[in-house]
Specification:
Structural class: alpha+beta
Distance between the termini: 14 Å
CATH architecture: 2-Layer Sandwich
Order of helices and strands: EEEHEHEE
Shape: globular
Strand order of the largest sheet: 1-2-3-6-4-5
CATH topology: 60s Ribosomal Protein L30, Chain: A
Number of strands: 6
Number of helices: 2
CATH superfamily: RutC-like
Radius of gyration: 14 Å
Largest sheet: 6 strands, mixed
């Protein structure tokens, strides 16, 4: 099976990994954070989602291809604020991705939220 790496110029990475990988009709994006977006969870959620949109665009896909999202929060009390931003982002998706959200003890670079997504590159397998 061939794998294709998905990267964006100028996007910070915090370790030796690909920002995304496309293989066998599936796309996986590494967890996206955006501490530069601001110091509140709403701003960081929007920043992470913007990075996801950009990576999907680089792979010639969109959020409509997503099947699963995993949201990690530094503080579970930020769930409602994150959910408000995330909800607006998925509002126009007919079949929204399945999702898990939970608190993590610590996120890279002091981020308040990290979002990981997986999706389909084609409509049939």
């Amino acid at each position: 099976m061939e794998k294709e790496q998905i990267e964006l110029e100028g996007v910070n990475k915090y370790g030796p990994y690909s920002a995304g990988v496309k293989a066998g009709g599936t796309i996986w994006l590494s967890g996206q954070i955006d501490v530069e977006a601001g110091d509140d969870v709403k701003a960081q959620t929007q920043g992470a989602l913007d990075k996801i949109d950009a990576l999907l665009d680089a792979a010639q896909l969109s959020k409509h291809n997503l099947c699963f999202a995993q949201v990690l929060l530094a503080d579970i009390n930020d769930f409602a604020a994150m959910n408000e931003v995330y909800g607006a982002w998925v509002e126009d998706i007919e079949v929204r991705p399945a999702r898990a959200a939970f608190a993590a003890a610590a996120l890279p670079a002091g981020a308040l939220v990290e979002i990981v997504v997986q999706g389909a590159c084609r409509t049939s397998f």
